[in-house]
Amino acid sequence: MSILISGASIAGLAAAQRFSARGAEVTVVERALELRRSGAPIDVRGAALDVAADMGIRDMLAAHETGAAQRSAFTHIVDENGEKVGALPTELPQDSPDDLEIFRSDLIDILHGAVGPEVTFIYGDSIQEVTDTGDAVEVGFASGRSGRYEVLVGADGIHSGTRRLVFGPEERFRRHLGVYYGILSLPAELGADGEAFLYSVPGRSVLIGDYAARAMGGFLFRSPEIAYDYHDVEQQRQLVFDEYSSARGWKIAEMLDALKQSEDFYFDSASQVHMDRWSSGRVVLLGDSAFAPSFFSGQGTPLAMIGADVLATEWATCDGNLDRAFGRYEQAMRPQVDRAQGGVPQARDRVVPATREAIEARNQQWPPIR
């Protein structure tokens, strides 16, 4: 049985491994010319660790853990002079004692390595047309090629082209949370001595944290929806420069200098995806395409891996009844998604307070750890 997966990120790679392991003939199409490895360190938590064990990669994930357990349990809030004025708990509530943190690049490489050679990868191409004939999905690609598949899995992220083609425009489903964020590696001299520090001015924050031997930085700012090209990194870089051009204090100037040279800058909206259903006929959505919880939740990667496993399992046992398979997949995942998406606005407001008064109230609520 042939499965086409759109997107070679975490959800897509996990789905490729899970479907292939269950006997499917899998093709993965990815718009980028290679695997996209940039982004912040991410959590693999709870039941996602069991999925990793089934995939044979749990020990590899543990070997690439960033050392989160050795860092302070708090992100220190600092003022413009670097003096500690507050402390936010760093760790989310644990799903299991074995929860771990890993660089996104390492997770992508490990997941890709777990996918067998029988899976076909097509880079530099994307889906342009989708026709569900009832007994197959006929797909036309930007390159001009075409294909016919039993199932199409849209795992192409929060700005999913598969979702747009089959379910409708992005604005129907994506809820902008009023924040944009950019992540990048920083020079070693900007490191945080094994800890994490956050500096806020009204509507804007910057974050520096150490992960293993690497320093990472983050820009987070409040803004209404911005029209920009999701694939134009230079335009996204300029958005950050413009937003922080008048911001002063702490290490903002040094971080902006690092941004000019960054080769791994990643930028996006803090958004959630809410849909009444995740499937239509022979097309089904997975990961952020279907149920993005936003990076504030810390649950995007676990949901993607768990969802891939559930979806492939239900497909393999449905005796051709895709409606039943997709219904069971959704029934299993909905409660987990609802939990992950709840509470995100509160986390956003702690990290990126909107006003000077909100900053002061946060710092009073979370006093400094000396």
Account of the 3D structure:
The protein has 370 residues and is of the alpha/beta class. The protein contains 12 helices and 18 strands. It has helices spanning 10-21, 47-55, 58-63, 104-114, 161-167, 233-244, 252-261, 288-291, 300-316, 322-341, 344-351, 356-365, and strands at 2-6, 25-30, 42-44, 74-78, 84-89, 100-102, 120-123, 127-132, 137-141, 146-149, 151-154, 174-186, 196-201, 204-211, 214-222, 266-273, 279-280, 283-285. The strands form 4 sheets. A 7-stranded mixed β-sheet has the order 5-4-13-14-15-12-16, sandwiched between helices. A 6-stranded mixed β-sheet has the order 7-2-1-11-18-17, sandwiched between helices. Strands 8-9-10 form a 3-stranded antiparallel β-sheet. Strand 9 (137-141) and strand 10 (146-149) form a beta hairpin. Helix 1 (10-21) runs parallel beside helix 4. The chain is globular, with a radius of gyration of 21 Å. It starts with a strand and ends in a 5-residue tail after the last helix.
